[in-house]
Design goal:
Structural class: mainly alpha
Shape: globular
Largest sheet: none
Number of helices: 4
Order of helices and strands: HHHH
Length: 86
């Protein structure tokens, strides 16, 4: 995951009054796993799986985190448009 996604998750936790331990309970993960993922730990901190990273890179895309149902996400580039590849 990239730093922007980690920051968005941390911000969303703060705004919602949740701790990383709360997030761990909600996801069925250990608090240590959540901390490693959000800190970009030695195990990669929740890296994007290789096939997805390759597809995103080839298409000039990046992952972003936005609240569900949000209409504030950027427009998705289409092939041949700015940000996309033909």
């Amino acid at each position: 995951m990239n730093d922007a996604i980690r920051a968005a998750i941390d911000e969303h936790l703060r705004e919602g009054g949740m701790t990383r331990s709360d997030l761990a309970r909600a996801t069925g993960k250990t608090p240590q796993a959540i901390t490693r993922a959000l800190n970009g730990g030695k195990d990669g901190g929740g890296q994007v799986p290789g096939i997805w990273a390759a597809m995103l890179e080839a298409l000039g895309l990046e992952l972003i985190a936005v609240p569900k149902g949000s209409t504030s996400h950027p427009a998705t580039p289409t092939p041949g448009s700015a940000g996309g590849k033909a």
